[in-house]
Amino acid sequence: QRAILCEGQDDVAVTRTLPDRLGVDIDSCSISVVDCGGRENLPDYIQLLDQLHIELLVVTDGDASKIAAADDGTAQKVEAVEKAAAGRMFRFAEDIEAALGTTKKRNNAANLVELVERLDLDHLPQEDEMAQLAQAVTRFCATDGPALEAGGATK
């Protein structure tokens, strides 16, 4: 049993859709995709899964513009997740909406899934965050361990 921990429902929707588009069945890999209800909850989920010896991959936002614009605690929350994940994460530079070239909308999850379904995954450049997320999730499914520092994880 393994788990991909996401900040919220929008990340879950994309994280489930992307591997499906690549022909990777995460359910057959015994991978659960979990909505953790916000970044502030991720360290607790990571600690729990570590205690249960469940391999994990964290998908999270970097929120670079929020960090640069204000000292509202965002940087500390990002750092807390990074420390708890210990390299077992994919972090967007900004967020999943920015990676898909959109902004949050009323039916955000449905909008993001539609955008992922339209992506030409075979022709995305390697530096594209969606290509990097696809690689991280595919690698996580294909191995017995975490997809360490995949793609955007070091941003």
Q: Which tags fit this structure?
A:
alpha/beta, 155 residues
How is this structure best described in words?
With 155 residues, the chain is α/β, with parallel strands linked by helices. It contains 7 helices and 4 strands; from the N terminus they run βαβαβααβααα. 45% of the residues lie in helices and 14% in strands. It has a 4-stranded parallel β-sheet, sandwiched between helices.
Quick recap of the structure?
The chain is an alpha/beta fold. The chain is built from seven helices and four strands, in the order E-H-E-H-E-H-H-E-H-H-H. It is 45% helix and 14% strand.
| Overall 3D shape | globular
Category by helix and strand content: alpha/beta
User: Secondary-structure element sequence?
Assistant: EHEHEHHEHHH
> How would you write the strand order of the largest sheet?
2-1-3-4
How many strands? 4
What share of residues is helical? 40-55%
**Cα Rg:** 14 Å
Q: Based on the structure, what is the oligomeric state of the protein chains? A: single chain
Unreliable stretches (pLDDT < 50, length at least 5) are 145-155
Distance between the termini: 28 Å
Mean pLDDT: 88
Q: What is the count of DSSP helices, taking H or I runs of 4+ residues?
A: 7
Strand content: 5-15%
For the biggest sheet, the summary is: 4 strands, parallel
